[in-house]
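Hi W.,

Here's what went into the run:
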Amino acid sequence: MKRSPGRAGAAGGAGSPGGLYAAPSLFWLTVFFLAPLAIIVAYSFLTPGPRGGVEWKPTLDAYRAIANPSFARVTLNTIVVAIGATAVTMLIAVPCGYYMARSSRQTLLLMLVMIPFWTNFLIRIYAWIAILGNEGFLNDLLIATGLARQSVRFLYNRGAVMLVLVYTYLPYAILPLYSTIDKFDFSLLEAARDLGASKLGAINKVLLPNIKGGILTAFLFTFIPIFGAYAVPLLVGGTDSYMLGNLIADELTKSRDWPLASAISLVITLVTTMGVLLLLRANGTSVLGGSGDGEKPVPEASSAAAYGAQAIGGSR
Amino acid sequence: MQIALSVKNVTKRFGDFVAVDDVSLSVEDGKFFSILGPSGCGKTTLLRMIAGFYEQSGGTIELRGQDMTDVEPNKRPVNLVFQNLALFPMMNVYENIAFGLRRRGEKSPAIAKKVNGLLERVGLPGAGKKTIDQLSGGQRQRIAIARCLVLDPTVLLLDEPLGALDAKLREHMKVELKKLQAQVGTTFVYITHDQSEAMVMSDAVAVMNAGRFEQIGTPQELYHNPASSFVAQFVGNNNKLRAVMHKDERGGFFARYGNGMDFKVDGAFDLSGGDAYDLFVRPESLVINPVEAKQELNVMPAAVKAILFDGGNSRLLVTPDGFADELVVALPQTKQFDHIRAGDRVRIGWDASKSVCFKRADWKIYDDE
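Here's what came out:
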């Protein structure tokens, strides 16, 4: 990730050459992001067709359906899983990133973090099923060593979903943290100690504020995709880990209620976007190119916001 | 005078490598003390032990008589100006200076008074709101020092803080640091590999090489009476001639150069451990065309190789007849020697009392830290 000065709103002047350079990405965003979003917005206000699709009769039925308590339960479940999995991911990723940045074998460690990407996402989920299943590797081992008399049910519950989600999104959290911590000047910690800060005080007052951008990016890179998770709860989850992503898919493919699916998607998008904006604002980052008075803009965070927006649009 | 800092027989080992080897020093309150040595000589290690970032393998470090062993860096009454300054980039100038006071839990009005007072003292009043990247190199320097001085340390440690500045600014900051130190009266311990910085600013200098102190003294003492061949070479400029020391029948000592020429030297020398010596004579001790052939003068004809004009610091590069070495000779800009051109022949001479001789020592300057 290249550190470019945060000037998202600078190239907005009409007739400037910036407009020309921005044309391809403008085209890209219009066709692949804004247009689908517009379709979702439109569909959410229409009547469901008998076998999927929509009929062009405007109605607010989809939004009324959202008021149903079962929707709230799934939302709550999703929030619990997303917060839990993100918290665990961050707790592992911060020490990992710190260790990698301090290590003399950075290239090797970077390789190790990236190697999982060489295997398809779904295959890796099935690999976990092969490990955790009733006749899986782990149970075979437990029975062979006498630690368990019959196989333990690891799969199809919230724990399994959290585990696989943490596993999947850990690299996305480690990499931005590593790149931020790697740039951190560790003599600042010594300076803080020298000026009277305790070990913990030096970390709180000097290290954390300096790697804030990386922490924020790592958080967004993990929380947003986990919030929209679909494949993981579908394959390793049970009834207690049914998430919004699954609800949308079921409305779309089983109930064939496309407007409802669209409405849920929109609500998620709005809530997540607002959450991200609030978070960025709380961190003193100017998001929409406003004049960032006071603190310096955090470049990683702005790019994360852009990434976040796309991640919401293209839910996995 | 109270002793601010006292280092007694301090040693630091990293595995088999001895970085600091049985070093002792004491600095009186209010003095400017420098530790001068080539890079890798152990001076940074020594400084970090005083600051508390390394634990010594042996010996004790005392501040105003208090043993500092087992005292955490944040509890020691010393502050360190880092080589790269280590100013906090996410804080403005005011917050950088206030950092230490806040850690002590001082009240805001008291902090404001101290920070603003110190900003004024370092010549940057009203700069509190500026961010670190809005400051010039020299200004950052002053903020880094202010950040430490605001805590009123017993000793302020400075780790080559002028290293990153360009030559002109460095000259300026030397004088400024010296003035600041005199004004605030805090004890400064300054480490550097630049002998000119050490000489200009210090009340006393310790010359360090390969983990040991070669000599501690005032800049004048180091310059005029070096205690070792290393000091003679490292402090100021010196011409070095490899010679063989011998004694004549009347008990006078002579240094014989490779071409068989004998130079009179002052003092008595120990020839028991071999007679290989190095003779040092400073450029300004070499006289061009000495008028009267005094008894103590070593005079020889020489050819001028080049004129190294540098204003008041101009020198001649000459090769005396039969010499393998070139000698650097001070060239006073008094118009007296303006006629000299490269290729001319001159006589050069030096007073035996102005040269020093040391047994040849194969010290080497460690270059990798």
